[in-house]
Write a sequence for this structure.
């Protein structure tokens, strides 16, 4: 697997880093880079080989997210919720659902997204309002989702909707293919303008009497949606932590190079202790965050519960990345604040790690609850 990671690293150095700045500033979807990721098999990282995927372990999977994010975090975004869709179908889908969706997802003929968050709130998942009601042998979905990544370029979504009473037990997950529902019943909003995470599109998704067939219900039974998605988010959090490490690593690499070139008071700024110590702290914190996400991934690989470790990894890595990207701007001085260097992009991308896949406030609660209960 180290060979695959090495291949991705080369792809990032040769093809991503030279092009990301222009694509990002133009907020352009990176079609050519996404095609290359498909050629490398990255859309099937978490899909077993029997369904045409690479069948990677969680550790390798996360390390690839780190490598991609070192080049451009949005590329990992294209694969992030796609991977959660694959995970949910792989872990909880019926045999028929796995045969139907996993091969095209692995081959990138279908590209996935997760439709969980709603306009009135993303943290309080148990109280989601979108509804699904039975219609003959199918289901009809109604409701609005907000902040959904991979709309527009994506074509299959795992959608969480209420099929029963209030609370987590009343939620179910559905696989909805954009091109297989009646026109006008699944409406994508205009892409949101964002601080960072550009290129990849994020928008609302409105379901207006959107009919799907009976096979769309994940696992074939109602009431398991909350647990299915929370399990998917555990993997998502490990990958967000890995992305944060990748962005922080890019910030460190750029800062190290700049600190050895830029001369003030007659010597390279790396020889000023204040700058050297910033670099030392960045490198140390990156290493610590990497150990946290690798530890969580290894627990998942061993088949153990890893919600505590995934939450800790995401919390620590995201806050570390926010600090490291600000340090990188400071090390670059005035130039760091301009769009002629990449550090301003890293700084704009970093806050999403604190908010996405469970805000850090919610994760602190998750961690504290687990500490008290164990
Ligand atoms: C660029 C981007 C892409 C995204 N992509 C997706 C996607 O693909 N699919 C998807 O489903 N969602 C996606 N999201 C949504 C994201 O997961 C939510 O924004 C996040 O879960 C927070 O939900 P919210 O924005 O509704 O904030 P709210 O839930 O309204 O929270 C607002 C603030 O209150 C705090 N808060 C809320 N409740 C508590 C509490 N009990 N204790 C302490 N603090 C609390 C929160 O931490 C936060 O600081 C995306 C968001 C962004 C910005």
């Amino acid at each position: 697997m180290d060979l695959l990671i090495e291949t991705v690293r080369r792809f990032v150095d040769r093809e991503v880093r030279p092009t990301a700045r222009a694509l990002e500033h133009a907020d352009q979807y990176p079609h050519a880079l996404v095609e290359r990721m498909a050629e490398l098999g990255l859309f099937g990282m978490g899909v077993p080989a029997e369904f045409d995927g690479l069948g990677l372990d969680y550790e390798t999977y996360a390390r690839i997210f780190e490598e991609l994010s070192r080049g451009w975090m949005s590329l990992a975004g294209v694969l992030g919720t796609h991977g959660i869709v694959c995970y949910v179908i792989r872990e909880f889908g019926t045999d028929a659902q796995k045969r139907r969706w996993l091969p095209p997802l692995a081959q990138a003929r279908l590209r996935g997204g997760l439709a969980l968050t709603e306009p009135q709130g993303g943290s309080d998942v148990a109280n989601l309002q979108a509804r699904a009601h039975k219609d003959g042998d199918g289901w009809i979905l109604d409701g609005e989702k907000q902040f959904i990544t991979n709309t527009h370029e994506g074509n299959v979504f795992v959608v969480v909707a209420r099929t029963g009473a209030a609370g987590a037990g009343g939620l179910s997950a559905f696989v909805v293919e954009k091109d297989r529902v009646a026109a006008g019943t699944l409406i994508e909003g205009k892409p949101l303008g964002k601080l960072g995470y550009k290129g990849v599109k994020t928008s609302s998704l409105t379901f207006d009497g959107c009919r799907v067939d009976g096979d769309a219900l994940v696992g074939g039974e109602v009431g398991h949606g909350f647990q299915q998605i929370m399990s998917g988010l555990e993997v998502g959090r490990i990958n967000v932590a890995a992305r944060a490490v990748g962005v922080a690593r890019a910030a460190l690499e750029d800062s190290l190079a700049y600190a050895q070139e830029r001369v003030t008071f007659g010597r390279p700024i790396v020889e000023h202790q204040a700058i050297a110590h910033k670099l030392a702290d960045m490198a140390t914190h990156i290493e610590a965050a990497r150990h946290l996400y690798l530890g969580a991934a290894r627990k998942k690989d061993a088949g153990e519960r890893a919600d505590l470790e995934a939450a800790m990894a995401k919390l620590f890595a995201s806050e570390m990345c926010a600090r490291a990207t600000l340090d990188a701007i400071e090390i670059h001085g005035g130039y760091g604040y301009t769009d002629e260097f990449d550090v301003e992009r890293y700084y704009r991308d970093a806050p999403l790690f604190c908010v996405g896949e469970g805000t850090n406030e919610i994760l602190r609660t998750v961690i504290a609850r687990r500490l008290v209960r164990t």
